[in-house]
């Protein structure tokens, strides 16, 4: 079969499979939750974007989260694509890109079909209700997968024309930029990217033994990085133009980091796990910082009590303190415009740091992140907590397709916003409406969700085994490379990069679980595609070695149907 026919067959099957998956997912209606820091937040920002108002008026939450997901919602709205369909199509694209990246190493159509199906049916892409809510995790994981897939495609084309390599380099830069501007913990992928970059440079030097080849590769990564910085600068420019805050997020400004980080560093004898700034620490900070004292009527008043009631333990829980702090700053008259808000954070940070330095406050070392402070008692919790999280990730136990108990919640005006900007049919907000739906409709949806649940059960059964075997394959390949003194393959380096990403995100979530809160289901979703990427590339690497196929990229005489 020639290349053209292979391309037609593969793309036809890919379109059929995604259509079938979308048909099964019609069992889901959008669950609209009027959560002002989550679903409703993204809907409102997307509504402002669709109206040509950038992110809308400045308030305490406007710049609290990455801008890409509201932009994604807006693009889907402009294109007339329902949001849940758009999110599924993004994952479908990620599967296609990965298969396209693999094309230089094999001409076997069966390989691409198996890999594509295994990726497309990943349970994290259709578990309910998260994938039926307006949550950024639905684009975050595909973007991480797309970034590593694009870099794999770039490495496997090291001997191809520079222009074709440039396509993959630009794809990697674009995907990583969008990934970076979706969630705030995106730095966990940086070690994986550094590993790939260094490997690629060494490979080029070993292959040609020339500086020109290394410089050419550096140029590709420089263009990719330029694309990343261009997008970041564009978002910062828009924020500066509309709000006088020259940053992608207000929490990434030096002023916010100084103020909030100094507050988190205060140590007291009454510290409690999961409570980053206890009442005693706040009292001391009020006395040391006139700027922070402006927030006292609000943090100790209505604002603070509202957030305390959600924790239910007499103080502001770590899950809610960042929002309580922002609400207090807003209630004190800030966030009307950017300059005065940053000036407030600057004053607060300087005053608290000064109090720490002259001994009025007992402070730990300044934190490099905005996580709650670390205590010596936490050290013994690190390994057990990490093992629990990594086991949870590998076991694929977080997924459900049950739609019975999930209802939309919120006022009518919010429901109108959800339905308009997402172009989705909403899950009813009343049990009575669900109960009165025709039996044939309920029966069909139950059958669809049963099939999806069966597929999830299959992954739950095989993934722990596959991950264990893949780890053995990786260790064997590394040992073989050392013994035989041969260079490792691009597939193996991507497998290691994916594993590095999983280890990094689970380590971050370990710190979060110990210091702040243990509800990490959403943040863990990015680990599942990376685990599958680790498994697939590890198996492909060992399979190619077993069959004695060449590992180096080669030119296709009849052209590359997948780029």
How would you describe the overall organization of this protein?
The structure is a single chain. The chain is mainly α. Among the domains are: 3-245 and 411-458, no CATH class; 266-363, no CATH class. It is built from 23 helices and no strands. Mean pLDDT is 92; it is low at 549-563.
Biggest sheet overview: none
Number of helices: 23
**What distance separates the N and C termini?**
18 Å
Mean pLDDT: 92
Q: Which spans have pLDDT < 50 for at least 5 consecutive residues?
A: 549-563
What percentage of amino acids are in beta strands? under 5%
Succession of helices and strands: HHHHHHHHHHHHHHHHHHHHHHH
How many strand units?
0
Query: For the CA atoms, what is the radius of gyration?
Result: 25 Å
Query: What is the share of helical residues?
Result: 55-70%
Shape: globular
Which structural class best describes the helix and strand composition? mainly alpha
């Amino acid at each position: 079969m020639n290349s053209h026919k292979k391309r037609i067959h593969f793309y036809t099957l890919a379109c059929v499979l995604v259509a079938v998956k979308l048909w099964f997912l019609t069992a889901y209606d959008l669950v609209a939750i009027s959560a002002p820091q989550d679903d409703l937040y993204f809907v409102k920002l997307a509504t402002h974007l669709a109206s040509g108002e950038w992110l809308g008026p400045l308030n305490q939450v406007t710049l609290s989260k990455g801008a890409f997901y509201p932009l994604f919602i807006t693009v889907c709205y402009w294109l007339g694509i329902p949001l849940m369909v758009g999110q599924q199509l993004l994952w479908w694209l990620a599967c296609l890109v990965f298969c396209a990246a693999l094309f230089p190493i094999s001409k076997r159509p069966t390989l691409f079909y198996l890999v594509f199906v295994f990726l497309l049916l990943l349970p994290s892409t259709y578990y309910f209700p998260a994938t039926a809510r307006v949550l950024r995790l639905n684009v975050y994981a595909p973007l991480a997968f797309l970034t590593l897939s694009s870099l794999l495609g770039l490495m496997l084309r090291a001997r191809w024309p520079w222009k074709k390599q440039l396509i993959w380099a630009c794809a990697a830069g674009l995907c990583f930029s969008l990934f970076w501007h979706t969630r705030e913990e995106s730095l966990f992928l940086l070690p994986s990217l550094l590993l790939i970059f260094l490997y690629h440079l060494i490979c080029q030097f070993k292959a040609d033994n020339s500086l020109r080849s290394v410089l050419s590769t550096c140029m590709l990564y420089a263009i990719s990085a330029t694309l990343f910085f261009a997008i970041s600068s564009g978002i910062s420019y828009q924020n500066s133009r509309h709000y006088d805050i020259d940053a992608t997020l207000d929490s990434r400004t030096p002023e916010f980091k100084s103020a909030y980080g100094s507050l988190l560093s205060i140590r007291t004898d009454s510290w409690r796990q999961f409570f980053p700034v206890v009442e005693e620490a706040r009292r001391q900070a009020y006395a040391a910082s006139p700027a922070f004292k402006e927030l006292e009527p609000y943090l100790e008043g209505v604002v603070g009590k509202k957030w305390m009631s959600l924790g239910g333990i007499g103080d502001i829980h770590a899950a809610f303190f960042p929002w309580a702090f922002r609400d207090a700053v807003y209630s004190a008259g800030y966030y009307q415009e950017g300059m005065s808000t940053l000036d407030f954070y600057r004053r607060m940070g300087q005053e608290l740091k000064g109090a720490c330095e002259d001994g009025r406050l007992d402070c730990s070392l300044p934190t490099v992140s905005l996580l709650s402070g670390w205590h010596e008692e936490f050290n013994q919790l690190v390994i057990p907590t990490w093992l629990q999280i990594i086991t949870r990730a590998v076991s694929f136990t977080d997924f459900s397709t049950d739609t019975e108990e999930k209802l939309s919640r919120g006022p009518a005006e919010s429901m109108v916003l959800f339905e308009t900007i997402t172009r989705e049919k909403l899950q009813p907000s009343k049990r009575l409406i669900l109960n009165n739906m025709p039996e044939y409709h309920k029966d069909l949806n139950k059958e669809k969700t049963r099939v999806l649940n069966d597929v999830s059960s299959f992954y739950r059964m095989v993934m722990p085994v596959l991950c264990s075997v893949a780890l053995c394959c990786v260790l064997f390949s590394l040992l073989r490379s050392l013994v035989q003194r041969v260079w490792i393959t691009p597939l193996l380096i991507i497998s290691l990069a994916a594993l590095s990403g999983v280890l990094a995100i689970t380590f971050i979530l370990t710190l979060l679980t110990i210091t702040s809160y243990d509800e990490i289901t959403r943040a863990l979703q990015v680990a599942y595609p990376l685990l599958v990427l680790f498994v697939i590339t590890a198996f492909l690497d060992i399979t190619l070695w077993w069959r004695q196929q060449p590992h180096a990229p080669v030119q296709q005489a009849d052209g590359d149907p997948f780029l």
